[in-house]
Amino acid sequence: MIFNSFIFFVFLGVVLPVFYLLPNKTSKNVFLLIASYFFYGYWDWRFCSLLAFTTLVDYFIGNAIHRTEGEAKRKRLLIVSLVVNLGILGFFKYFNFFIDNIRDVSAGLGFKLDFIHMNIILPVGLSFYVFHNLSYIIDIYRRKIEPSQNIIDFGLFVTFFPQLVAGPIGRASALLPQLSRNLKPTRAQVYEAIPLIVSGLFRKVMIGDTTGRFVDHIFENMEAYKGIELLSALVLFSIQIYADFSGYTMVARGTSKLFGVELMKNFEQPYLSHNITEFWRRWHISLSSWLRDYLYISLGGNRKGQTRTYVNLMLTMLLGGLWHGASWNFVIWGGLHGLYLAVHKMYSKGRSIQAENVWPVSFRSALSMAGTYVLVLFTWLFFRSTSWETTRIFFSKMWHWETSEYTGWFVLTTLTYLVLIVAMDLVLYATRKETELDRILSVPLRYGVMAGTFFFTMMYLYQSKPMPFIYFKF
Q: Which of 85, 221, 292, 467 is the most exposed place for a label (fewest CB within 10 A)?
């Protein structure tokens, strides 16, 4: 089940009234747990058992770690959880990747090894809920939190349907206390939820899906297009993936608010970043903070000298790239970001790095934002390419700037969507707190605009085939 589908809104229209009618915390959590399994099982019921298995394993291991005093025994229990979770992730996501690479390397060395290539279906959301669970276990091991003593609450923490299949990757310290009380949305949460859901759906359907159709067509027929048209497609992909994923997160956060649950913000206008470090503090925040807290710091962070710091950054981003998919293209994408971060850290040594205000925009500020965007844009080529051949064709043709009858249309379309997504981000930035605009526009007018936008988006969705969210395949 995907957010940009009519069946999801039917599902939500059934679940919400029943939830509001339930009298207490236990009945609400049990109902939400069942609803979450139905939401997940709508894709493929077979993998509900895998979800239940990881839930039970980490529930009991978390409590066992908490009860155990000896450090060696606690570490062994942690290792069991790591092996189970990462073993499941490794089998479903990386088994064929590693087997194929072993076969290719052995063939290059003159050995012929016949390995079975298994037809493995990747469970939706596996990478997300594995990281979700691991953060819980590691935090217990580090004595940062206490384990949940209620299997229903913990099961809901793992499976809560708005964040189950594509995040945000939640932390137990933030989510479990919410799920341990009687969930009841406040009036403010309901008022905040509607604009989030409508805006997120608009981003996904009207920007993400429309740009995605252009991008798919061009990348599937690269030989037919000129360099400037391919560059336009790459810019459109940068817009597509941002609108697609940020739109999903907005719908997820808005939906969770309707149940009285707050999920973390996952994006903070990333394409308005002044440098690559700031970009990663604004892009996919739940993943970047997870990689920092549970991988980078575990490797030693910046505590073991400059060289080790740069190595740790590179390793973290290489593994972050591999987390996205079993492909060398994702590894290169992560490696480039690791290189960018290491170079920026080297350049900014001794200076405080923090997110800067995006307004007012000076020439220097605009230049740094444009430069950061170009660096990120280059990496998106490896993220989007389905093969080395796709990447090779792109590089071979990008230097040919002759035009065709379609060039002007491609450039105009790209600029239109680029201006639209930047304008939406500037509006989000400007309206984080009450502004003059909020006082000028009455509540009926604001919600009238929301209703019109929702109706327009749903009409477009009705007439077109829904496109799955990009991050569902990770």
A: 221
The domains of the chain are located at 24-101+116-183, 188-274+356-468
d(CA 209, CA 214): 9
DSSP labels, 319-351 = HHHHHH-SSHHHHHHHHHHHHHHHHHHHHTTTS
Residues 347-381, buried b or exposed e (16+ Cβ, 10 A)? eeeeeeeebeebeeeeeebeebbeebbebbeebbb
Residue (of 176, 125, 185, 184) closest to 152 by Cα position:
176
Contact between 80 and 38 under an 8 Å Cβ cutoff? The reply is no
| 384-420 tens-digit pLDDT | 988 888 888 888 888 777 777 777 777 888 888 888 8
* Greatest Cα-to-Cα distance within the chain, rounded to the nearest angstrom: 74
What is d(CA 270, CA 274) in angstroms, rounded to the nearest whole number? Answer: 9
List pLDDT tens digits, range 326-355.
899 999 999 999 999 999 998 876 555 454
The residue from 324, 337, 344, 400 that is catalytic is 324
With b for 16 or more beta-carbon neighbours within 10 A and e for fewer, the 57-84 pattern comes to bbbebbbbbbeeeeeeebeebbeebeeb
Alpha-carbon torsion (461, 466, 467, 472), positive or negative: positive
Q: What is the dihedral of CA 458, 462, 466, 469, to 10 degrees?
A: 10
Q: Is 274 a catalytic residue?
A: no
pTM given for the model? 0.89
Residue pointed to by tokens 């009860």: 67
Q: Give the span between the Cα atoms of 284 and 422, in whole angstroms.
A: 17
**Rounded Cα gap, residues 43 and 165, in angstroms:** 11
* Unique residue bearing structure tokens 């908490």: 66
* 8 Å CB contact between 219 and 400: no
Neighbour tally for 128: CB within 10 Å: 23
Q: Please give the structure tokens belonging to residue 378.
A: 């280059």
3-class DSSP assignment, residue 115: coil
The CA-atom distances, in angstroms, between 200 and each of 17, 209, 255, 399 are: 22, 12, 11, 36
Output the CA–CA distances (angstroms, integers) from residue 170 to 87, 157, 187, 261, 290, in the order listed.
21, 9, 24, 12, 9
